[in-house]
Amino acid sequence: MTDYILEMQGIVKEFPGVKALNDVNFKVKRGEIHCLVGENGAGKSTLMKVLSGVYPYGSYTGDIRYNGEVQKFRKISDSEGKGIVIIYQELALIPELSIYENIFFGHEIMKGKSIDWNETITQARNMLGKVGLKADPSQPVKTLGVGNQQLVEIAKALSKDVKLLILDEPTASLNEDDSQNLLQLLRELKAQGVTCIMISHKLREITAIADTITVLRDGATITTMDATSRTIEEAEIIKYMVGREMDNIYPKRKKHAFGDIALELKNWTVVDPVKNREILHHIDLHVRKGEIVGIQGLMGAGRTELAMSMFGNPTGYRISTGKLFMDGRGVTLKHPKDAIRHGLAYVSEDRKGNGLFLGQDIRYNITISNLEELVDGLSINENEEIAIANDYKESINIKAPSIEQKVGNLSGGNQQKVQLAKWMFAKPNVLILDEPTRGIDVGAKYEIYSLMNRLVEQGMSIIMISSELPEVLGMSDRLYVMSEGTIAGELLTEDATEEKVMAMAVSS
Ligand SMILES: Nc1ncnc2c1ncn2[C@@H]1O[C@H](COP(=O)(O)OP(=O)(O)OP(=O)(O)O)[C@@H](O)[C@H]1O
Ligand SMILES: [Mg+2]
Q1: pLDDT at 64 over 80
Q2: Same domain as 222, residue 158
Q3: 277-288 and 212-217 as β-strands: parallel, antiparallel, unpaired?
Q4: Which of 93, 126, 135, 156 is deepest in the core (most CB within 10 A)?
Q5: Which atom of ligand 1 is found nearest the CA of 42?
Q6: From CA 176, how far away is CA 502, in angstroms rounded?
């Protein structure tokens, strides 16, 4: 047998108008953790879909060798039959079903003609033990947090007797603890002989876990680096990813004076009526015109709840005390539409449920939020619409053949850019960004940060919620630290350090 469990050679995969993979060579050693990195749209997910048979043999050119033999996978079950299991960027569990039903969904344990539930539950418990998830196998998956759902996906892969495990951005929506936990599990699986391919934009994780790193750019392999023989610095990976040196990750903003207070919360207390529990306690905060205010805090500190309660409360919370002021006037926002009408916009962390029209093109998705601006007499000024969509496509580098591309066909990170462009074009007075750069590559982050700078220079206010502390420190003028539903502290960014912020975040 060769040292390589997998050898993909000269892979070319085209979609109408897009050459997603253009001669990719990718070799994975048996028993290693191999990280696959590259900018949004570089072709990472597509390469893994070619491997797993989502794109069947015949729909691409090039060779796939697995354990030295050429493979012609026509469907996912063909690759799974050989022990290749992929966990997708968007999890594929069925929330209503129990853990054990999910683990054995599609490959049920049979006894004669019916499912052997006793054996299913026993085996499920065994798999949960292996991934270190302490949960009752009959619990519905929807009762688990994302971190634990990810563990169920891995348990499912183990139940299929996985030899080569592929994870597409597994930690994108996990908090620090869950991420560390997952990486530790990958190390344990490696010790048991499972080979692993991991796609991630989190370079810190990659340098910590990778044995080998392969960089893709524009559908081609740029380099493969051996991380066992030397230390690989993040800067080196970035250089290969973006094709140039990047000495500054956060673009400098021109110093400018802030204006009046654009939005203020006073004594804001919020109750979750379903759980009958107070989730936010007496919050005071404000943001001025032209200012970027960061909101930092651990997962569960109440940051997203805070944003939702300001943005017209779509989740049905009850504001038990307090008031929201916009431009100094008290307002009651009963619905997100009220919020938008008052000049408030919210870009959520959840790409799927955020109102992108996946069947529509980029142009439609960007301009829909502010069609009034394009009205010319009785009709929409189409030339201007095209110009605006093209302008955003270029300025934040949305990777697609044209603005006529369907958003559903864009890579994950590029969908996120469209959603940002959409809300930026809505030209709100106050823009709330919730984890705006999740799943976004380093180069594109820079472009998004530059765009944020441009917006505040024009007088917009931005509230940025992010669990990436370096990003909050790099971009905000001032920041609030939340802990257990309260504001635990406030800092000017120039006085803030990672240590000070973390101390506040765990203070209550
Ligand atoms: N079904 C499809 N139809 C048309 N184009 C597609 C389709 N799937 C992917 N593409 C295009 O192929 C290219 C590679 O996409 P892919 O999803 O592999 O990128 P990625 O490296 O995984 O990016 P990300 O980091 O954003 O997830 C992109 O330009 C994308 O728009
Ligand atoms: Mg992808």
Answers
A1: yes
A2: yes
A3: unpaired
A4: 156
A5: 21
A6: 12
Residues 222 and 320 in one domain: no
Identify the CA nearest to 121 among candidates 113, 135, 131: 135
Range of the domain at 287: 248-343+428-508
- Report residue 499's pLDDT band, with 50, 70 and 90 as the boundaries: confident
- Please give the distance, rounded to the nearest whole angstrom, from the Cα atom of residue 80 to the centre of ligand 2: 20
Say yes or no: CB of residue 37 within 6 Å of ligand 1.
Answer: no
Same domain, residue pair 103 and 230: yes
- For residue 110, the model assigns a pLDDT of 92
User: Are residue 151 and residue 20 in the same domain, yes or no?
Assistant: yes
The pairing of strands 220-226 and 212-217 is antiparallel
pLDDT higher than threshold 70 for residue 397:
yes
Q: CB of 409 closer than 6 A to ligand 1?
A: yes
- If asked whether residues 324 and 281 sit together in one domain, one would say yes
Please name every residue paired with 376 in a beta bridge, in sequence order, or none if there are none.
379
Q: Report whether pLDDT(353) > 60.
A: no
| Number of structural domains the chain divides into | 3
Helical residues (DSSP H) of 368-426, grouped into ranges: 382-395, 412-425
Check if 412 has its Cβ closer than 6 Å to any atom of ligand 1. yes
What residue's CA is closest to ligand 1, atom 20?
41
User: Which pLDDT band, with edges at 50, 70 and 90, does 74 fall under?
Assistant: very high
The verdict on 397 and 323 lying in the same domain is no
pLDDT at 59: 97
State pTM to two decimals.
0.77
Question: What confidence score (pLDDT) does residue 342 get?
Answer: 93
Q: Are residues 229 and 332 in the same domain?
A: no
Is the CB of residue 311 less than 8 Å from the CB of residue 344?
A: yes
CATH code, 330: 3.40.50.300
> How far, in Å, CA of 391 to CA of 8, rounded?
37
Ligand with smallest separation from the Cα of 400: 1
